[in-house]
Amino acid sequence: MINMDNKYAKYFEVNKETWNKKVVIHSKSEFYNVDEFLKGKSSLNAYEIEELGDVKGKSILHLQCHFGQDTLSLARLGAKCTGIDLSNEGIKKAEDLNIKLGLDVNFVESNLYDVSEKVEGTFDIVFASYGVIGWLPDLKTWAEIIASKLNKGGFFYLIEFHPIVWMFSYLESPPKLVYPYSNKDVIYEEYKGTYTNNDADIISKEYGWNHGLSEVITSLTNVGLHIEFLHEFEKSPYNSFPEMNKTDDGMYVLKENQRMFPLLYSLKATKI
């Protein structure tokens, strides 16, 4: 476990403060569309629905759950869910949605690296999605926590933006290739707005780390998890780059002359 008193404590505290501010804006945004969500719309995308398979009756630990929409969507499919997030405001909003929906999801405010202390028991599935890896300085400990929280025969499922996507600075227009593919050094960005609203009255201050696919895969295999698949996708549910083309299935792709790298990847790793 990483002690919050160590060199990463400052980074985590700044990120927590930023995400607390983001929750207020995100929960009112069209991007997250809470009104439609409360009426029954799932927040899960086609990739994770297909690759997770039937989750009915499964216990799921959702890491870095933001304000809980995906956790609650999994619970609607019949899973017994626990969601954790660094942001106390995110957990507060998640608990509010949980009550409104009449579900029985357990939400826990926790730094990912404190999960072993704050979350009891083990799970059939550990789940994480979209924009999570980059907030973590240490994937070795991350993988150890995941393995420790899985039942034997259970699996970890991750769907994430491709490491190449994180090499760009989106503070410039068009986005500019700035950051290394895999980088141990911390990356700091400060900008007005947030991804749901570039004009929002918020200054986002963010510390992050880039991790290549080899680091992700090796971290998981080193703790004894068996990689069932690694998939890469050129379509994304999110229009991360300017002037992306929308496809018939509602996904986004780069313009034809720009499709030189994947936008997403997913993996499944089983505890044997």
List the helices and strands and how they pair.
Elements: H1 9-26, H2 34-38, H3 46-52, E1 59-62, H4 69-76, E2 80-85, H5 88-101, E3 106-109, H6 115-118, E4 123-129, H7 139-148, E5 150-161, E6 168-169, E7 176-177, E8 183-192, E9 203-210, H8 213-222, E10 225-233, E11 245-246, E12 252-253, E13 264-271
Parallel strand pairs: 1-2, 1-4, 2-3, 4-5
Antiparallel strand pairs: 5-13, 6-7, 8-9, 10-13, 11-12
Number of helices: 8
Count of domains: 1
Strand content: 25-35%
Radius of gyration: 18 Å
CATH superfamily: Vaccinia Virus protein VP39
Helix content: 25-40%
Largest sheet: 7 strands, mixed
Flag low-confidence runs.
none
Quaternary form: single chain
Major β-sheet strand ordering: 3-2-1-4-5-13-10
Task: Tell me the span between the first and last alpha carbons.
Answer: 23 Å
> What coarse outline follows from CA principal-axis ratios?
globular
Mean pLDDT: 95
| SSE-based structural type | alpha/beta
Order of helices and strands: HHHEHEHEHEHEEEEEHEEEE
Brief overview, please?
With 272 residues, the protein is an alpha/beta fold. The protein contains 8 helices and 13 strands.
Task: Give the key terms.
Rossmann fold; seven-stranded mixed β-sheet; 13 strands; alpha/beta; two-stranded antiparallel ribbon; single chain; 272 residues; 8 helices
Task: Give structural notes.
With 272 residues, the protein is α/β, with parallel strands linked by helices. The chain has one domain (9-271): Vaccinia Virus protein VP39 (Rossmann fold, 3-Layer(aba) Sandwich), CATH 3.40.50.150. The protein is 28% helix and 28% strand. The protein contains eight helices and 13 strands. The strands form four sheets. It has a seven-stranded mixed beta sheet with strand order 3-2-1-4-5-13-10, with helices on both faces. A hairpin with a 6-residue loop joins strand 6 and strand 7 (176-177). Helix 1 packs parallel to helix 5 and helix 7 packs across helix 8 (213-222). The mean pLDDT is 95.
